[in-house]
Structures are given as structure tokens and as C-alpha cells.
């Protein structure tokens, strides 16, 4: 596997780990499968039995860490430092399994077993942290940069301590590694903060928090993914998830008509209209209007599309209406048509090309932050306003909620922009962010040279060319010195985006920051120089010069003896899992869960601290100590557990012996809300909506949090929104369809 060769990530390896867990009960018997997986016999098998499910769990966690790392778009250096530890853990586990006989005494040691439980917990924490920092939403959970650094150093400290307790060899616990770790932390955090400051585009709000609409879209996506062949009865507010309906009477003809108000060479035509004093396009669509599962799903996907209008670089979808006895989608009007139509009509000045590319990158970032992949990034799917503002469009319904593999029919249309991994394994390779970045790189080329990549080539020729590591020509025509300098910098961005090895392909963050540098350096919105020039006036590709197409390198991308049958073994006591304790709690038991929660708290489990705190708070199992409970809630809260953040906040209210701190209360309630705890979202929304606890009233912010809570069926939030006459799926009042 490229990038992380030391870690085996094959299907056989992971399934083998699962097989180990499933076979735990039969360890020491005569099962052929058991002997094959573990390679142990007799008493050694009995000794390792308690460790089998733990080893299997760690193996799967390691595999998940690899997948998260490979898909990471942000803070790659921080993730890399943690993956160094994951590799070390992987090697240690392999060595432990290979040398089972030599390690038999450890397998009998109860303290070693407890240390291994801590090891499992630490590996899960590392997995969660990598997942958080590799995504914008997860990164913003940590309010300050110091919180990320503290969490990182705490994880490393925990990891090194438990590795030492297990006598696992570590080649990375040294001063040089710590220096590299600190450099990675500082560089990634500085770059990420700069990126978040510049990205704008509806992602970061004025109060430096993630736009709640992004969370709403993710929740709505999950709901659509769960829709089966019947209407879901558990969708809140008596309505299924639907697009906004626009009354036909609200759609007017333009005050002054023009020939360009009608688009298309044949029916159905697209018409320019006016809606709420905005210029809109009415696009005929054959959308089923019955109550079928297909109709409900399309309606839900269109409702999601409506939410995306918070991004200034995505074509706004306002809703559905009826005109001339046909269903139409009402969308933002883009006067100049598609970007492809623009470059076929004009030559676009180079500084304007850079700004257009930057804004498209903003729009793609917004989509990816919503966990939405476009699947068809090209100039034909970018609409342009009179001010040359790009607006991403061309969404297929199914693409809003799934990463469905492209069909062969669709391949014919998109093959010019398609990533090599999709060309190689079209059906088996899931479309991911790396594929989208490659397509964006091809769009950058298309924008630069104002023509379709590999124009007039058939699919097989394109496939053979791209899979051999070759790309389109990157040769520019003569221009002013500063423009030629711009072109060379732009060229490097393209090359970074279309790398053959997806693991060394540039991240969207990198592409955005590089384009942002170019725009700040070369684009002046106050310039009197025309952005659009007559067609064929710019020497785009220097056809007088012959260069070979740019070729991008594919590079960075013992049998054990039998024991006597009468061997005597004093087995160590197995500690029930934390899930066992939670299951016992649900069965109304108290003593058993309490003992399990205490045991796992002593092992450092975040979730166990929360549960022990809960028992101490409520007085279960004859134990009651709300001060200690609050302390445990805070420890778990600071580890990022949403439920603990909520309970710690409320443990500050009316807790005898402690003074209520409103600032801390709101801080932890907000953390829980941002961590998608619906109860926290409701309480925070109620607090801002009504100005409780002396907090300045902020109705709009209150509504945002209430809507997030209602989207996950929080009953009190639904009740308040119903009283306000609000539809939780959009910003309009309730409307009946």
C-alpha cells in the first residue's frame, strides 16, 4: 500500500482480525480455523484467549486509522505524526502475535491485561482525533489552537505510557521525534487557521464558528440515506423532507424582455423570470409528483440542494413551481451562461481566470464540508454571472446523498476530467475527494486553455494516455512578463492536482491557498483592464512551440512446539467490556454496571468516566457524590465526549458547594451543541431565543440551534418551531405541498 507500506491493510488481514474475535470462545479447542488464525495450541491458546477480542479490536482500529489518514484533506502533518504511533502499535501487535509462546507469561499477568485494555482505549482516542483534525467541522470543535496542542500532547503521553507498560518497543519516543511533532503541530495549525480565515464562502460565520447550515445538510443527508420504500413515520413536523414550493403567481416575467431570456436549442426551453425581485431561471424537470418512494427521495434531495445556497459559489435553488402546466426548478439566473459558453465566446483575461478558479475552489470546499461530492466538475457545470462570479451547478439528484459509482454511459461525458483510479476501476473504485480534486485540476487546465481536455479523443485513447502517466500539454503562448510568471505558478497548481498517485495529489486546502496567493498577487477587482476580451485575441497555448505533453511520474506514489496436556494454567480474570456495563444498566442492574464503570475509569476510559459520573450524580448503586461526578464529567468533556459536555454544563447549575459560572456553562453547552448533541442544541437555542441567564437575545442564532435539534427529532425544539410557524428544513414558514 502506498504511503503507509509498514501497515498491512488487506481485506484478508482485517477479516482475519474479525475471525479472531468471533473465535474467542473456542480458543484452546481443536478448531482448525482457530489454529489457523492464531497459530497456537494447548495452554498458550488458553493464555491468549482474553486478549483475542482486544487484539482484533486494535487491528480494526488501525485499519480505520489508515482509511481516515488516506482520505484526510486537512492537517496532514498532525495526522502523519499520529500515524507514526499507529505504525508502531501495528508492529508491536504483529510481534506479540508472532511470539505468542515467548509472551505467555505476559498473557497470564492481570496487570498486563489491564494495560492492554488501556492500550485499546488510547488507540480509539487516536482514531477519533485523526478523524476530527482531518475535517473542517472536527477541527473547529477545538475552540483554540492550544486545545488541539494539549489534546495531541496528552494523547502522545498516554500512548507512550501504555506502550511502556506493555513492554512494546518504541523507536519514536525521543527528543528528535518530539521536535518534529511540535513543528508539525505549529505548521498545520497556522496553515489551517489562515485557510479558515480566507475561505469565507458560507463555511465560517462571523463569530468564527462553522455555519450551522453545514450541520443541517449533513443531518438531512443522513435522513435521505435512511429513506426506504415507504414514507418515514419518524420524520419531524408532520411533513416529509421536501423542497420549497413556490406559488406560480409569485413568478413574474422580466420588466424588459430580451432574446437571451430564453435558452436552449429545442424544447424544453429555460426561461428567465423574476421572483421576489430576483432574476431566476425556470428549468423544466420531469419530477414525479406522487407519493412514491422515488418522488419522496427526489424531493428530499432537492431540499438539500436548497440548503446549499448559503455558499455564494453554488447556484441557488429556490424551490419548485408550475409554469405552463409543467414542473420547473426555480434557480438563480446566471446571465453569461456556463463557463464553457463564456470561454467559447470570449477570451478570459488571466487574472480573472485565477479569481474564477479560486471561487470554484471555495464552492467545492463548501460541498465537501457538507460531505457532498459533485462527481462532474467541469466548466460546462459552472454558471457565470455578469460580474464573473462562478456558480457550481450540474448536480444529479442521486449525487447529493451518495457516492454512487459512475456508470459507463456517464463515463463517456466525464472521461476527459476523470481521475486515473476511476478510469482503471470504474465500477469498483468509489468516487472520493481525491477523484474530485483530479477533476478540478483538469478544470483548471480547461479554463487556462479554453477548450475541453483531450478534445476529439475517444474514451480508450484517453484512458490509455492517462493511465500511462501522461497529461495534457502545459505550454502557454507569449504574453507580458508578469502574466508569464502567473502562468508558471498556475501550471504548478495544475500539476499538483493531477498527480497519478492519489496519496500525493494536492489537498483542496493546498490548492485553495495557492490560488489565493495568485489572486492576491495578480487580481485587482478595481482594474480597468477588461476581464473578457474578444475571442482569439490571447495566445493561449503557444501553438508555434511544440512540447511533449507533461508526464507526471507515478512515484510520490515458525511453528510452535506442543505443550503437555496436563499443563496447569492459572487464568487471569477477564474484565467485562464497557458495553457489557452499559447493557447491564439498560436492564436496570446497578451494582454490576457500577463495578464495570469503576474498573474502566481506573483504566482511563473517557466513556467510563462519564458513566461513573452519571452514577455518582444520580446516586445509583448506593453511591452519590455530585462534586466528584462533576469532576468526572469535566474530564470526559475535555476529552470531547458530547454527552459529558452537556452534563458538565448542567452540573454547574444548582450544584451545592460550587458557584455558578455562566461563562463556563455556555462554553460547555456550546461545545456539546457543536458536537451534535440535540439536547444541548435545544437548550442553547432556547437560551438565545429568549435571552435566558442574562445572555443577550439572539433570535436568529436561537432558531439555528433549534432547527439543528429538530432535525434529529428533539421534541421540545420541534414544538417551539411549530409555534413559530417555521419549517425546519428551510428558512421559510411552514408550507403545505
UniProtKB/TrEMBL annotation:
UniProt entry tagged with the keyword Signal: no
Keyword check for Transferase: yes
Membrane-spanning residues: none
One term of GO molecular function: protein serine/threonine kinase activity
Keywords, ordered alphabetically: Kinase, Transferase
Coiled-coil residue spans: none
Protein kinase domain residues: 245-523
UniProt cross-references to Pfam families, sorted A to Z: MLKL_N (PF22215), PK_Tyr_Ser-Thr (PF07714), Sel1 (PF08238)
Gene Ontology BP term (one): cell surface receptor signaling pathway
SUPFAM superfamilies assigned to the protein according to its UniProt record, in alphabetical order: HCP-like, Protein kinase-like (PK-like)
Highest taxon, organism lineage: Eukaryota
PANTHER family per record: SERINE/THREONINE-PROTEIN KINASE TNNI3K-RELATED
Protein name, UniProt field: Kinase-like protein
Amino acid at each position: 500500500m502506498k504511503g503507509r507500506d509498514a501497515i498491512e491493510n488487506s481485506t484478508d488481514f482485517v477479516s482475519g482480525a474479525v475471525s479472531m474475535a468471533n473465535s474467542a470462545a473456542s480458543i484452546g479447542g481443536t478448531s482448525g480455523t482457530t489454529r489457523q488464525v492464531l497459530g497456537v495450541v494447548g495452554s498458550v491458546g488458553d493464555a491468549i484467549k482474553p486478549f483475542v477480542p482486544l487484539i482484533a479490536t486494535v487491528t480494526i482500529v488501525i485499519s480505520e486509522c489508515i482509511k481516515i489518514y488516506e482520505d484526510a484533506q486537512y492537517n496532514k502533518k498532525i495526522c502523519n505524526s499520529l500515524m507514526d504511533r499507529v505504525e508502531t502499535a501495528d508492529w508491536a501487535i504483529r510481534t506479540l502475535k508472532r511470539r505468542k509462546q515467548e509472551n505467555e507469561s505476559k498473557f497470564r499477568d492481570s496487570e498486563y491485561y489491564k494495560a492492554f485494555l488501556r492500550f485499546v482505549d488510547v488507540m480509539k482516542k487516536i482514531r477519533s482525533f485523526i478523524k476530527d483534525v482531518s475535517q473542517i467541522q472536527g477541527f473547529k470543535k477545538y475552540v483554540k489552537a492550544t486545545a488541539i496542542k494539549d489534546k495531541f500532547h496528552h494523547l502522545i503521553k498516554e500512548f507512550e505510557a501504555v506502550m511502556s507498560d506493555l513492554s512494546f518497543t518504541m523507536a519514536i519516543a525521543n527528543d528528535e521525534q518530539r521536535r518534529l511533532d511540535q513543528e508539525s503541530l505549529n505548521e498545520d495549525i497556522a496553515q489551517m487557521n489562515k485557510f479558515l480565515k480566507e475561505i469565507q464562502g458560507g463555511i465560517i460565520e462571523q463569530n468564527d464558528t462553522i455555519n450551522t447550515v453545514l450541520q443541517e445538510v449533513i443531518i438531512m443527508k443522513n435522513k435521505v440515506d435512511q429513506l426506504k420504500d415507504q414514507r418515514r413515520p419518524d420524520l419531524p413536523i408532520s411533513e416529509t423532507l421536501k423542497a420549497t414550493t413556490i406559488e406560480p403567481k409569485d413568478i413574474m416575467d422580466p420588466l424588459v424582455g430580451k432574446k437571451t431570456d430564453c435558452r436552449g436549442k429545442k424544447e424544453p426551453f429555460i426561461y428567465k423570470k423574476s421572483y421576489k425581485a430576483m432574476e431566476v431561471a425556470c428549468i423544466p424537470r420531469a419530477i414525479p409528483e406522487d407519493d412514491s418512494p422515488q418522488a419522496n427521495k427526489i424531493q428530499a434531495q432537492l431540499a438539500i440542494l436548497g440548503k446549499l445556497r448559503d455558499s455564494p459559489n453554488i447556484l441557488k435553488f429556490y424551490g419548485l413551481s408550475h409554469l405552463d402546466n409543467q414542473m420547473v426548478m426555480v434557480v438563480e439566473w446566471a446571465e453569461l451562461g456556463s463557463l464553457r459558453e463564456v470561454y467559447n465566446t470570449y477570451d478570459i483575461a488571466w487574472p480573472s481566470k485565477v479569481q474564477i478558479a479560486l471561487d470554484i475552489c471555495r464552492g467545492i470546499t463548501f460541498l465537501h464540508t457538507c460531505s457532498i461530492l459533485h462527481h462532474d466538475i467541469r466548466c460546462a457545470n459552472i454558471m457565470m454571472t455578469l460580474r464573473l462570479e462562478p456558480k457550481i451547478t450540474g448536480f444529479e439528484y442521486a449525487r447529493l446523498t451518495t457516492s454512487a459509482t459512475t456508470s459507463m454511459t456517464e463515463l463517456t461525458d466525464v472521461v476527459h476530467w476523470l481521475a486515473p483510479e476511476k478510469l482503471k476501476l470504474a465500477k469498483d473504485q468509489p468516487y472520493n475527494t481525491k477523484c474530485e480534486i483530479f477533476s478540478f485540476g483538469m478544470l483548471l487546465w480547461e479554463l487556462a486553455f479554453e477548450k475541453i481536455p483531450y478534445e476529439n479523443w475517444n474514451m480508450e485513447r484517453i484512458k490509455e494516455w492517462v493511465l500511462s502517466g501522461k497529461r495534457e500539454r502545459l505550454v502557454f503562448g507569449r504574453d507580458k512578463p508578469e502574466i508569464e510568471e502567473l502562468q508558471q505558478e498556475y501550471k504548478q497548481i495544475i500539476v499538483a492536482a493531477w498527480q497519478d498517485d492519489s496519496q500525493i495529489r494536492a489537498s483542496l486546502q493546498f490548492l485553495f491557498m495557492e490560488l489565493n496567493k495568485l489572486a492576491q498577487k495578480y487580481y485587482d477587482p478595481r482594474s480597468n483592464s477588461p476581464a473578457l476580451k474578444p475571442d482569439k485575441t490571447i495566445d493561449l497555448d503557444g501553438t508555434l512551440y511544440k512540447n511533449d505533453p507533461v508526464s507526471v511520474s507515478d512515484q510520490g506514489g515458525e511453528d510452535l512446539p506442543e505443550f503437555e496436556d496436563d499443563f496447569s494454567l492459572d487464568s487471569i480474570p477477564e474484565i467485562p467490556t464497557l458495553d457489557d456495563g452499559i447493557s447491564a444498566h439498560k436492564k436496570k442492574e446497578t451494582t454490576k454496571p457500577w463495578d464495570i464503570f469503576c474498573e474502566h475509569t481506573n483504566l482511563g476510559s473517557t466513556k467510563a468516566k462519564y458513566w461513573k459520573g452519571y452514577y455518582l450524580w444520580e446516586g445509583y448503586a448506593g453511591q452519590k457524590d455530585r462534586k466528584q461526578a462533576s469532576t468526572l464529567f469535566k474530564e470526559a468533556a475535555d476529552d470531547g465526549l458530547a454527552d459529558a459536555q452537556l452534563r458538565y454544563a448542567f452540573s454547574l447549575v444548582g450544584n451545592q458547594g460550587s458557584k455558578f459560572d455562566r461563562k463556563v456553562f455556555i462554553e460547555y453547552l456550546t461545545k456539546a451543541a457543536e458536537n451534535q448533541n440535540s439536547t444541548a442544541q435545544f437548550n442553547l437555542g432556547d437560551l438565545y431565543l429568549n435571552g435566558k441567564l442574562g445572555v443577550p437575545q439572539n433570535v436568529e442564532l436561537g432558531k439555528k440551534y433549534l432547527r439543528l435539534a429538530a432535525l434529529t427529532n428533539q421534541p421540545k425544539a420541534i414544538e417551539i418551531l411549530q409555534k413559530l410557524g417555521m419549517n425546519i428544513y428551510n428558512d421559510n414558514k411552514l408550507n403545505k405541498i
